[in-house]
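Hi,

I'm pasting everything inline rather than attaching a file, because the server keeps stripping attachments. The sequence lines come first, and each chain or strand is labelled.
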Amino acid sequence: MSASAAYDEKLVYMANQIARNFSIHGEEKAVASTLDHIRMFWDPRMRARILDHLRAGGVGLEPTTRRALELLSLAATE
Amino acid sequence: MKLYNESDHGTPAKKATSEVKLSVDGRVVSVPAGTSVMRAAAIAGIGVPKLCATESLEAFGSCRMCLVEIEGRNGTPASCTTPAAEGMVVHTQNERLKKLRRGVMELYISDHPLDCLTCSANGDCELQDMAGAVGLREVRYGYDGENHLKAKKDESNPYFTFDPSKCIVCSRCVRACDETQGTLALTIQGRGFGSTVSASQNQSFLESECVSCGACIKACPTATLMEKSVIDIGLPEHSVITTCAYCGVGCTFKAEMRGEEVVRMVPFDDGKANQGHSCVKGRFAWGYTTHKERVLKPMIRAKVTDPWQEVSWERAITHAASEIRRLQEAHGRGAVGGITSSRCTNEETFLVQKLVRAAFGNNNVDTCARVCHSPTGYGLKTTFGTSAGTQDFESVEHADVIMVIGANPTDGHPVFASRMKRRLRAGAKLIVIDPRRIDLVRTPHVEASHHLALQPGTNVAVLTGLAHVIVSEGLANEAFIRERCDFDEYLQWAEFVKRPEYSPEAVEKVSGVPAETLRGAARLYASGGNGAIYYGLGVTEHSQGSTAVMAIANLAMATGNLGRPGVGVNPLRGQNNVQGSCDMGSFPHELVGYRHVSDAAVRAIFDKAWGVKVDPEPGLRISNMIDSALEGSFKGIYIQGEDILQSDPNTKHIAAGLGAMECVIVHDLFLNETASYAHVFLPGSTFLEKDGTFTNAERRIQLVRKVMTPRNGYADWEITQLLSNALGYPMHYAHPSEIMDEIARTTPTFTGVSFDKLDRLGSIQWPCNDRAPEGTPVMHVGSFVRGKGRFVLTEFVPTDEKTGPRFPLLLTTGRILTQYNVGAQTRRTANEVWHPEDRLEIHPFDAEERGVKDGDWVKLASRSGETTLRAQVTDRVAPGVVYTTFHHPSTQANVVTSEYADWATSCPEYKVTAVQVSPTREPAEWQTQYARMSADQRKLAEPSK
Ligand code: SF4
Ligand code: SF4
Ligand code: SF4
Ligand code: FES
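And the predicted assembly:
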């Protein structure tokens, strides 16, 4: 795996891990909390990077994570 | 400057609600009931001669020096053991008493060498003082009879000697070891004239159970137990009160000096955190400050394979600044960042993050707390509203049940552990949750009621299981919850914890903790009176570290164990200033005082104070800096007092990241492991060479005072300031107190803090502001910082680090008493005699299965890497679990640890790595390579020496 792909995989892992830990609160809250967490704690270049990954198909993203990132992407283009 | 000598009233102060009035030599004095006659006399200003009594220890009554007469009573009772009573009339001096005392003194002296002039305690000896006080002029008994004058010295301990020829068998040392330290290493052997002090079973001090805390030396009234440094140098002439730079207990010391040379460090009786006690590190292990390997001149080089070139400060700073600017011009403002140190002062840490935010113009600042207590920040802020322990240390004296989770206080926080053990000996109950049988589980006169020896990685299951028992057995404190917490959230949480997957039986299956043990512990914590939780890195350093912290907070709220003395949630901080470095805005998303960078109102305060626009976006964490370096967007870093190569997980990855940067600036005392990848080396100063403050685990801000000129030329805050000025962002602080003033001006929890006030009060626990002008010992009294306490659902999500056929064992890591962190300081002291290498603890079953014997070399391999070290076969660890420390670069446990991390904070999961252990004869390949590279790097520094 190239270093770049490994990095994408790592960011996907991190985002999924966040969503997984919020999942106990129910899907809607988990999406909102994941979005909020990534906004509050990830530096912009990491956010941009994972949004690129999302746009490229988002391999590996769990459904909750994907929804949160879609919202993040909307906010980013607004 | 003077030599501080705390007053010694002879016996401890008593707390009592009633007072008694008595007369001593005609002076009327009122004292709390239970106070000794000796202490009452001292309060009245009369010093009764004494030898076996001292204020830090309970009276013993053996020397008979302190005899007094009390009207209406027969004989001459010992004033140290006689309680003062209402209306008592005491006489401390008359012919009869004088004669009796002289007689006693004569007996002592007849078996004591009269070499006062050449004795190391000459001028600091209570026996000498008492001989003077009783007017001893002749000794009628010669040395012809039996005596101890030829008794052999024990010089085995690297820091102190025991010279039995000078011992007067007052047993102060024995009592200090029992009462103050709680190790019980000393005994009086034999009886009458034949009695002598002995360490453990007639062993040398070094071989004995002694942990070199120094309490006995401090208590000894003669030169029998004496610091070797005093024997070498002579007695000090002045002292300066300062704070230990090792662990989060924050002990106050008197640096006892001769000119600019430290003679000894003596724990200060008025120190609020330590009350006159210490451990081997703060007391003795300060020799690194003058170690020959300390780098004192700045150095630069173009490539990390080039030899270092020694340069002037000016050249080093200009070069560093121009490199930072070059990288920012070429790769953007965010291409550089900084790391603050939990070993440096608050003022220095504040300055580094200010440098990053104001001069670099981004928020790429992080701190080593990332890898230890960042989950505490997240978890306690979410549940209570602020990121700090709730109590002061004193609180433990009011606890009835003490729950220690993932912490090893006797090694990690020894002075607090002594205080905790004292409370446990007095009857408080103990619950230990730890995969390993830490010392506290069974020590003299202390035995844990419950030891929950869980599988590493199952904290959240166990903690939620405890909540399950508390809620389903109706043990929750509903009145407290209704008043103090969000009740709807509580109800949701209560439903959640009652789920069958958190029943003790279900939890037993994942954690290995027997259901009945879990039940017993939950019942005891919920209904045993004041319940206090103390936790450490065994809680935080997991993929669910933040969740576990919240689970702990839930337990305390559910049982009403918050908001008063004796209870609370207390993170035991590793390094001296972890609390402070977090408080000071070292995290990429938070400004000073835990305020998020996205908050415009907060940013406005700093925009104004600093004359810049603070970036509203969070910056990179350490691990993200490394990743971004490998990605090519992060190019330069300024690291103050941190060795990320040795302390962070997955060494190979960190090395690659550092290797990908174009400018690594290391600001440290020694050429540490990270410096192998550095282009600029800025020599740092030690805690003895600068002014500032540290904040300990109880939020206590204490002064660090300069006792000598910095050998490297500058205090660390001055170096950061030079760098900032060279970058074109002016800083003009004349003294660290001005930096603290700026912190106070910009931070609501610090508004009342100043160096003047610290000097006056000795210490201050934040918050300190108009509402609490002298600070806050206990937090969340009456209401939580966030208003209502918040219950958070803590679902157990097992780590992805799994054992399997290739890696069937779980490795967990920790530290030991005599070494500190990556060992940069302690390895450069005589503490090496106790821990010259890291060892792998392995259970006898696992060892036998692999053909490993105690002391054998073994290979420890994980998915990340492998290392070799020697095995220690012990049932301290459970089958399936192995344990090691990370103090030595030659072992580098972090080559093995995985890259999994806490979901919320990226705090690495040091405490769980799937590994295999096998016998081996040779070092791992990288160790050989590493040894070579390390030697090469040191050589590169040689031409400059
Ligand atoms: S140094 Fe501490 S542990 Fe050792 S004998 Fe003295 S009091 Fe006990
Ligand atoms: S070693 Fe010192 S403290 Fe201990 S019994 Fe002898 S004189 Fe007293
Ligand atoms: S307990 Fe901690 S602060 Fe106290 S002397 Fe030891 S290392 Fe220093
Ligand atoms: S001081 Fe009272 S008996 Fe020794």
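The longest helix of chain B spans residues 313-331.

If the labels don't parse on your end, tell me and I'll reformat.
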